[in-house]
Each structure stands twice: as C-alpha cells, then as structure tokens.
Amino acid sequence: xxIKLNGETSGSIELDVPAAVGSDLQLTLPATAxxxxxxxADGSVDLGDVEIDSxxxxxxxxxxPGSFNSGANQLVIQSSGNCGLTIDATSTTSSSxxxxxxxxxxxxxxxxxxxxxxNDTMExxxxxxxxxxxxxxGEISVGSTGYNPDNNGVGLGSGGLFYATRxxxxxxxxxxxxxxxxxxxxxxxxxxxxxxxxxxxxxxYNGAHLSRWSQLPGGVERTEILRGSxxxxxxxxxxxxxxxxxxxxxxxxxxxxxxxSVGDVKTLAVAAGTENNEQLNRMQVSDVEGDKDVSGVFxxxxxxDDTYLNDFTCAMTGDFVIRIAQGTTVARGDLLMSxxxxxxxxxxxxxxxxxxxAKVTSTTVSETYSDGSYCVPCVLMAx
Length: 383
What we know:
Blueprint: E1 36-38, E2 50-52, E3 58-60, E4 75-77, E5 94-99, E6 111-116, E7 121-126, E8 129-134, E9 140-142, E10 153-156, E11 162-165, E12 181-188, E13 191-199, E14 202-206, E15 209-214, E16 230-237, E17 241-242, E18 248-249, E19 265-267, E20 273-274, E21 281-285, E22 294-301, E23 312-324, E24 335-338, E25 344-346, E26 358-360, E27 367-368, E28 374-381
Parallel strand pairs: 3-4
Antiparallel strand pairs: 1-2, 2-3, 5-6, 6-7, 7-8, 8-9, 9-10, 10-11, 12-13, 13-14, 15-23, 16-21, 16-22, 17-20, 18-19, 22-23, 23-28, 24-25, 24-26, 26-28, 27-28
C-alpha cells in the first residue's frame, strides 16, 4: 500500500540518516516498478518536475524523457520557453563535458567540450586531442594550440583575418563543381572590384594588374609621387632589416599544450638580420626621355605595414592608369614611353621596344593634377 509523508503548511520533510561510515539513504524498487516522479500537489507537470523512468532516463521539466530520440534521451531538459544547462566553476578552474567509450586512460575522455575560466578559452577535443579553440577575443584556431599564423593550422580572427598554414602542400582549395564562373570575388567597400574565374581549363584574373614592392634610392623616406608616374629601375636592391627578438616562454597564464610546462619556449628567439631579397630592386621616377629602364608606374605607398614605412607599390603589367603631361595629347592605341619627367608620351612608331611602357586603351581622363598632368587608362607592358 502507498505510504505518504505529509508536511506542515510550511517547512519540509526530512529523512535523517546516521552519520556513520557506510550509512546510505537508498530507495529500492522492484524490477517491475514504475517510475520515480516529482510533481506538484495537483499532479501537473511543469518546469519543477523531475522524473527517473524505469529505464533510468532522467527528465527535468518533462514526464516522458523516453519519447525523445533514443540516441540522446538519458537526460532531457524541457521548457516551454528558454531552456539551458549551467555548469558553475571557480574562475581559476575549468568546466568540461566528456564523451567516453570506456573508463581506462583516454577512453574516458575521447571527446571533450571544455571551458577554461582562467583565460576564458573554449576548446573542442576529438580522439582525446584539442582540435578547435576559441580564445577570449573570439579568435578561432583549428589544428593548433592557439591563434598564430606562424603555426600549422587554420585561424579566423575576430576582426575578419583568415589564415591557413601548412608545413608543405597547398594551403587552400577552391573548387567549383557544376559549371564555369567565379572562383574568388574581390570587393572593396562592398563593391565588386575583381575576380578569379575559370572557363574550361583557363583561369582568368579579372580587373587586375601585376605589381611589386620597391623603395626609393637609398631607402629614403616618403616623398610625394603622383599616381601613374613613370618609374625606372636602379642597380640597387631593396633592403628590409629587423631587430632581434627575445624568446617568449610559457607562463602560468597560458593554456599549456600537452607535454609543455611553464618556462618552456613558446616562441624562439630571433637574431637581428635582413630579409633575403634576390629579385626586388629599388626605383626612381624616370628622368630620361625614352628611358629603356622603365619598369612600371607608381601605384601607392604601402600603408598596410607598420614596420617598413618607406615601401611603395609599382604597377607593372596589366590594366592601370598612366600619367600624361599637360599639353601632350594621346590617342587610343598609342604606344607610350617615358617623357623624362615622370610622365609618359607617345612613341613615334608602332613597334614595341625596350622603352615601351604602355598602350593607351581610352582617352577618358580619370584624374587631373595641380600641374596640369592627367591620367588615362592603359595596358602596362613594363616587364
């Protein structure tokens, strides 16, 4: 027969077990028993209901955990509104959910979802190894111990920077399966500026030109050079030097990879030196009429680098603009050479020579400078 323990109008029902070693409070039901259910006085099921059914499934907020998918119904939390599970740990520890296929060694933690409260980092493990990490800034790293373009792996920065690093082999594959068309689309300020497309076995680079880095003679500081000005090669190579850097060691604040201890080297020391450069020479604004050392036209100073401030970009081959002096007239199809003052002018013939720098593709003026010189579209041939 049923046994009921009825409480007072307030307070609770207590079962007092002697505080002796081995003293347990047990609730034993026969094998044919039904379910253990916690309900409101009116028998209704609500968010406070807790049920352990005859198969050992635990339901919180539901009286029928067994009705959910059998692959994950050993614990079911149900709510008619927002629903969640909170794991509370101190600020110096970590919270984890382990997926085991045994109880020996790494069998007990083949898969892990863990949150390190000390450095606010979340990690996902497979095969008992960390595979994906999200750090406190929102930067994501896959296949490495942290967000660092120098480490093998893939990273996605919270500011939008993506990197893929490998010890060898291709770093990225872009595959279009069903038809020809764009493979990569380039935008600036949400406007399409160029693309890489495929047609059959042909890859096309659209809306583009080839360019290279360079420096002025002696690596001197920036000076004003008008966009589209004609440049000339020099027998002087660019130089990029860097300062020495001390080794960086792992500290107690770092998430330590397996087998690494505090005090181990995190980043190796770097001695001062100069980057290897066997192909990029310095340039100057062309000052010789018909200059055979023409090498392209000035594009812009390199503002994406906080270390090397005196680098600029030279447009060399492909679609760009070129600067023409005030009073000089050009026609579509003209071959151009250096005028000796940073501008270009038409050749006196239609033969491509060592002094030929470009071919005019339109007489539409894109920009006029204060000295009266102006820019027109061209195909650069300075290579």
